[in-house]
Amino acid sequence: MAEPDPKALIEAARAAARNAYAPYSNFAVGAAVLLSDGSMVTGANFENASYGLSLCAETVALATASAQGRLRDVVAIGVIGGLMEDGVARGTAPVGPCGRCRQVINEAAQLGGRDIPVYCGSAEGDEIASYRLSELLPHAFGPADLGLA
Q1: Is 58 a catalytic residue?
Q2: Cα–Cα distance measured from residue 97 to residue 104, given in angstroms and rounded to the nearest whole number
Q3: Among candidates 61, 82, 70, which has minimal Cα distance to 38?
Q4: Quick one: angle between helices 99-112 and 57-67, nearest 10?
Q5: How many helices (H) and strands (E) does the chain have?
Q6: How far is 46 from 28, CA to CA, in rounded Å?
Q7: Is residue 1 assigned to a domain?
Q8: pLDDT truncated to tens, each residue of the chain (149 aa)?
Q9: Does residue 11 lie within any of the structural domains?
Q10: CA dihedral for 24, 86, 58, 136, sign (positive or negative)
Q11: Beta-strand pair 117-120/88-90
Q12: What 3-state DSSP class applies to 143?
């Protein structure tokens, strides 16, 4: 199984954030999901004029992994975000996944039987905050509660 490299995940998330479609919030988010074979899947936020239909970067990346039949293979995730200036995400404070995304990440984690690491970085800074999913979403509800994991 692939060992997570937090810096590589954050760099991949930064690259993904360049493709963010965020005309309403002007806040670009990128996510990179590490799979058990060492490959990565990325995603960027995709906003919609009907705000509730917007998709977070983490959800896009995990849905892509699922479309490839790899949701159970998720080993780690890296997330970055920042306000866009001239089409580029800026900021040095680490950004973490929203509550909805924590629940979506939990789906993959429970299916794979892992308490996966979540690495939170910034658009420009070097600081990376590291958490276990269980720290970010204690007492999570998921497939195991339905007898599916």
Answers
A1: yes
A2: 10
A3: 70
A4: 30
A5: 4, 6
A6: 9
A7: no
A8: 889 999 999 999 999 999 999 999 999 999 999 999 999 999 999 999 999 999 999 999 999 999 999 999 999 999 999 999 988 899 999 999 999 999 999 999 999 999 999 999 999 999 999 999 999 999 999 988 998 87
A9: yes
A10: negative
A11: unpaired
A12: helix
Please indicate, yes or no, if residue 115 is contained in any of the structural domains: yes
How many angstroms separate the CA atoms of 106 and 134, rounded?
A: 9
CATH at 54: 3.40.140.10
Q: Which residue has the tokens 């799979």?
A: 35
User: Checking DSSP bridges between strand 27-35 and strand 40-44, what pairing results, if any?
Assistant: antiparallel
Q: How many domains does the chain have?
A: 1
Q: How far apart are the first and last CA of the chain?
A: 19
Range of the structural domain that residue 111 is part of: 6-146
**3-state class of 43 per DSSP?**
strand
Strand runs labelled E in 18-138: 27-35, 40-44, 74-85, 88-90, 117-120, 129-132
What is the reported pTM?
0.95
Domain membership of residue 44 (yes or no) is yes
Catalytic residue among 58, 85, 107, 124: 58
Q: Which helix (H) or strand (E) holds 45?
A: none
CA-CA distance, 10 to 126, in Å (whole number)? 9
